[in-house]
Specification:
This protein is α+β, with helices and mostly antiparallel strands and 254 residues long. It has three domains: 7-74, Arc Repressor Mutant, subunit A, CATH 1.10.10.200; 82-131 and 213-253, 2-Layer Sandwich (Alpha-Beta Plaits), CATH 3.30.70; 133-209, YebC, transcriptional regulation domain (Alpha-Beta Plaits). 44% of the residues lie in helices and 22% in strands. It is built from ten helices and ten strands. Strand 1 and strand 2 (95-102) form a beta hairpin. Helix 7 (148-158) packs across helix 8. The two termini are 16 Å apart. The model is unreliable at 1-15 (pLDDT under 50). Pfam families: TACO1_YebC_N, Transcrip_reg. GO terms for molecular function: DNA binding. Keywords: Cytoplasm, DNA-binding, Transcription, Transcription regulation. This is Probable transcriptional regulatory protein MTR62_19875.
Amino acid sequence: MAGHSKFKNIMHRKGAQDKKRSAQFSKLSREITVAAKMGMPDPDMNPRLRAAVNAAKAQSMPKDNIQRAIDKASKGDGENYEEVRYEGYGPGGVAIIVEALTDNRNRTATNVRTAFAKNGGNLGASGAVSHGFERLGLIEYPGAVGDEDTVLEAAIEAGADDVESDMGDGDENLGSHQIWVAVDALHEVARELEKVLGEAEGVKLAWRPNLKVDVDEGTAGTLLKLVDTLDDDDDVQTVWGNYEISDEVMEKLA
């Protein structure tokens, strides 16, 4: 789920997410294998693979699982996955981008279209909503690495473009920092930040909305069901949206 910057909202849903750990490991493995196939099987020589491995470590994925996923690529084992992007509108006219890795485009397209149709949305053509987003690099850190000023200073020094911090109402364990950078500067900035803040929770390409839509309680319930349905699909890697859900609405829905 990547619709809004209110990270404490996401924390309300962590319990449900914990049940999905095995599915999450499967998605992380798929990304590692694809990244290793597209470049060198060495994370130090392959920025995308390094980002995938870091994301897996951040989710406490065992080292053996990570190595198996890399080995699968170097041995040429397993399916050939391709990257596919779907765009559409959710309830309330919210713009949604779905990124998938699939070995069967027909299956994935059918599943994504059905998820939209059953949850108040509709799938659009390629380019239907992406014009309302910027393609950027995103580096994520937990709130515990430092306060807003510390992270902002480190980000400026490293060459980042923008920082969004949410300190979880004073509880740094619920807080998060999002550091936004130009796509071609992502891995260089991530390397510089690692020297100061340690290893990031996530380093990836992202879709950042130019404008966000505030969602009311009625729309939010259906919207989150759509996002969860998409997230539950094995082929779907990430769901991005231009929505903002207030803490008050999230608490009512929790």
